[in-house]
Amino acid sequence: MPTIGCRIQRLRPGFDGAGHRHTASTVFSVVRGEGATVVDGKRLEWAEKDTFAVPGWASYRHLNTSTSADAVLFSYSDEPVMRSLGLYRGENADPGA
Known about the structure:
Layout: E1 5-11, E2 20-22, E3 26-32, E4 34-39, E5 42-47, E6 51-54, E7 60-64, E8 71-77, H1 79-84, E9 90-92
Antiparallel strand pairs: 1-8, 2-9, 3-6, 3-8, 4-5, 4-7
């Protein structure tokens, strides 16, 4: 059974993502750029080489605070095992400002 999933995201300059939440927990590593992630109403600033985690069912959204450079986030999560066990749920959500 797969247990860990990996993704890479490119956030274009000025990106302001939609808020969402899911039952999977996710760890993000900042490959390039700078920005912020709003998690349950708390703003977490990040820059290249930072690592941060978003716990399961926490509402969050990413922002690229640069107006000229991409930001790149690498992430890994327990989504595959949550799906295999029938425990994965997700929805759009407002994480607050």
